[in-house]
Amino acid sequence: MTDSQALAPAPSPPHSKAEICYGATFYNISSYGILEKYETPTIIFGYALPLLELQIILIFVSIVLSHMFLRRIGIPQFVSNMLAGLILGPQLIDLLEYSSDRLSLDVPGNVMLEGVARLGLVMFTFLMGVKTNKRAVYKIGKRPVAIAVSSFLVTMISGLAFRNFRLDKIDPLYMPLRLAPTERSVIVSIQAVTLLPVITHLVYELKMPNSELGRIAISTAAVSDFLGFITLVCISYVGTYRYASPRIANRDIVALIILVLVIIFIVKPMAQRIVDMTPEGKPVRKIYLYVTILTAIFASIYTSVFNQMYVLGPLLVGLAIPDGPPLGSALEARFESLITNIFFPISIALMTMKGDVVRALYSFDDISLNIFLLGLTVVVKWTASFVPCLIFCELPTRESVIIATIMNYKGFVDLCFFDVALKRRNLSRATYTVMIIYVLLNAGILPTIVKALYDPKRKYIGYVKRDIMHLKTNSDLKILTCLHKPDNISGAISLLQLLSSPLNNDNKDRGVIAVTALHLVKLAGRTFPILIPHDKRSKARLLQNSYIQTMMLAFTEFQQENWEYTTVSSFTAYSREDLMDQDICNLALDHLTSMIIVPSGRKWSPDGVYESDDIMIRQVNDSLLDRAPCSIGVLNYRGYSKGKKRKNSTINVGVIFIGGKDDREALSLAKWMGQNSRVCLTVIRFLSGQELDKSKNWDYLVDDEVLNDLKATYSLANNFNYMEKIVNGGPAVATTVRLVAGDNDLMIVGRDHEDYSLDVTGLAQWMELPELGVIGDLLASKDLKTRVSVLVVQQQQQHE
What we know:
Layout lengths: L2 H5 L11 E4 L2 E4 L19 H23 L6 H11 L7 H5 L11 H21 L10 H19 L19 H13 L3 H10 L6 H32 L2 H32 L8 H20 L6 H9 L6 H27 L3 H6 L1 H27 L6 H11 L4 H12 L5 H25 L23 E7 L3 H13 L13 E10 L7 E5 L5 H4 L2 H16 L4 E10 L4 H11 L4 E5 L2 E3 L5 E4 L1 H13 L3 E6 L14 E7 L3 H13 L5 E9 L10 H16 L6 E7 L3 H12 L4 E5 L10 H4 L8 H7 L9 E6 L6
Helix pairs in contact: 2-3, 3-13, 3-18, 5-11, 5-12, 5-13, 6-7, 6-9, 6-15, 7-15, 8-9, 9-10, 9-16, 10-11, 10-12, 11-12, 15-16, 16-18, 17-18, 19-21, 22-23, 24-25
Organism: Arabidopsis lyrata subsp. lyrata
Main location: membrane
Pfam families: CHX17_2nd, CHX17_C, Na_H_Exchanger
């Protein structure tokens, strides 16, 4: 078979039982197999299903081949999806032209692929609306409004000033002169707006939604998206009024208002009703999920009928669905993987396939002014975003550059706008191709620039001492305690009770203990991270959550028992697993915290027997230890024995001191506990027995000074003991640690130790929990029979 025969239109197959009506034409869906006609096996592509399968296979093969190379240099898969569309476009394979007349002369061969792609766009836009935080527009400050308004208005005004520039030079064969201003208006309008779903996707890719820059970018995009929505509706109304008829324009705007009212007063209350009817911790009934999806699809059909963008209806319905569990998270869990991994790449590739690079090159003289206008709006928008950041918002130069760059990012929704404009003939094929290439370069280059400029650790650099050791005598001890599960509450409360003690003549100058309790919830079905303070103004429905209510009751009771010398504030943070550490660090910075207390992630039964390890909590702790803006303590809590659970019982607290800043910080924390009459404090110093030149070892001198101060403070106290033990080598250290653990209920140890003190490198090779350090790992071992809890302390790190 020759190439011309292979690429020739396939003969129309005979009608089968499986057929569908498209308009007044019938065409077959499934074939009888590749051997249906031996002479021309390509006849199977005259059937709708085999043709759709071929198109999808080619799309994903092109995507995989493209991403195989691009991922090595950090290019996101979105770019690979677009590149696959260019490969299958007219400049190379021309898949759409090959498929155009395969089904019949009256039915476009791409109608099935278009349907799949449109369904993907509808579903993806709906999910974006579901995941969007509805509070974003209402809880923004002046800075995002200033950036968004400046970026949108300055770009729009500057671009429209060139709307009629050199119209007389346009070739009428390229585009009728009356449509040329419309094409330029489309370019300027899409350039001026910054779309919320696009920016949210970028911010999450860069792992910065919980940072201050991420929040500014997301809030700014929300304002800009609102301005863009108003502009879109106005442009659509004016265009229909001028080029169709005033009656149709008025009908369309009334239909849009009706849709908005139905969503506000019917869809939203019904969705809230579904949430209220679903028992806490139980999944939403599947029928509700399917009805919600059908509502979004119906809204898409409705907006299409009344000459609006077909993604507008699903977006509005999505915004009416309460984000988070149970409904929002259920929709995300059930449909997001399918939409993101299957339908979304097909939609992107199909829109990119419509670009024709060859035609754009032939029409370069006609589109050169459009290219100039595109470049002008990019520069103007970047400047209009950068200047307010630098002057009005008073952000540093580097952060201002990052925000301005993010505001120029283009993505999936922008492609959707270009595609609709092409179908309505508001864009020529050549200009459409230029815009496709612009989005491709934009999506590949801008994230790389932001990654190079953005350093998440810059905010947490420790220029100020935020630890317990350097606290002044009369300063408050500010502690941030983090809770992932209800099991963590008892351990946190028990530790805080040891730190709390009534003021007396010996400690009358001491400050109070200011506790901030942070309840961390894994983000599900919510695009925006959110921090919720709990006070008398907290919403009743939020407080009905048993998990949150248990936390608040426990800490309220703790505060009431210690009201003279303790303050408590509670928060709940909804965040993604890999971004929880940023929420914790931000709250610690805002509250000037001296120490963060986190659970270790190792779970024990009520009898103190090992049950499991939580990998997610351990990963959060590992990130915190690397970037925390203050000291941090990792608590492995195994509970107290039955005789120790009474409020007046004595708790034996032991401190293993080897040497180094972490051990000194652990000793400073134990010094606070020693003021509690319930605590019997024992400090055990491990010595190697080797002679050291103490005069040349600064850390050793500091260690001695801290220990001498502690012994002087509690020299007359009955609840304080100090001892020294000489240990040589790793086995001796392990044996001594286990013996000491048997005499105590809680051990406080430093995470790292100075090299001069003891050689424990052999033990480091056998650690199960490296984030706890060598001694902490021994005390948290699942093989340790002694029921002892351990708090591993790391002093504030000085990042360079």
